């Protein structure tokens, strides 16, 4: 992976912060909006610099939460009115568009 710049980190943080309660975005949505080459870059940024953000609003392209955070992430989403069926969020109704 190419070095990640401070500007890229800040752009991802801005995008995540802009996702309203009750909505979600995928790692790919954020990568596209930030003009990054891969959703994995967003994942890396989220893993290292998102504790002060609504990280739970970022999910995989399948509509599933991060496997290691699934229970907590779904709890936080449910508290905002985002309902998951069989562990999957309906992206058609809850996806945020940048």
UniProtKB/TrEMBL annotation:
Matching entries from Pfam families are given as:
DNA_binding_1 (PF01035)
What CDD domains does the record point to?
A: ATase
Q: Name one GO molecular function term.
A: methyltransferase activity
Q: Name one GO biological process term.
A: DNA repair
Q: Would I find S-adenosyl-L-methionine among this entry's keywords?
A: no
Q: Which UniProt keywords apply?
A: DNA damage, Methyltransferase, Transferase
PANTHER family listed in its UniProt record: 6-O-METHYLGUANINE DNA METHYLTRANSFERASE, ALKYLTRANSFERASE-LIKE PROTEIN 1
Task: Quote the protein name from its UniProt record.
Answer: DNA methyltransferase
Name the source organism: Mycolicibacterium aromaticivorans JS19b1 = JCM 16368
């Amino acid at each position: 992976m190419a070095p990640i710049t401070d500007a890229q980190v800040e752009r991802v943080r801005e995008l995540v912060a802009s996702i309203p309660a009750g909505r979600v975005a995928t790692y790919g949505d954020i990568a596209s909006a930030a003009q990054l080459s891969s959703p994995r870059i967003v994942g890396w940024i989220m893993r290292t610099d998102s504790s002060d953000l609504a990280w739970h609003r970022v999910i995989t392209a399948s509509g599933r939460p991060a496997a290691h955070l699934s229970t907590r992430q779904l709890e936080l989403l449910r508290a905002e009115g985002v309902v998951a069926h069989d562990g999957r969020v309906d992206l058609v109704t809850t996806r945020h568009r940048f």
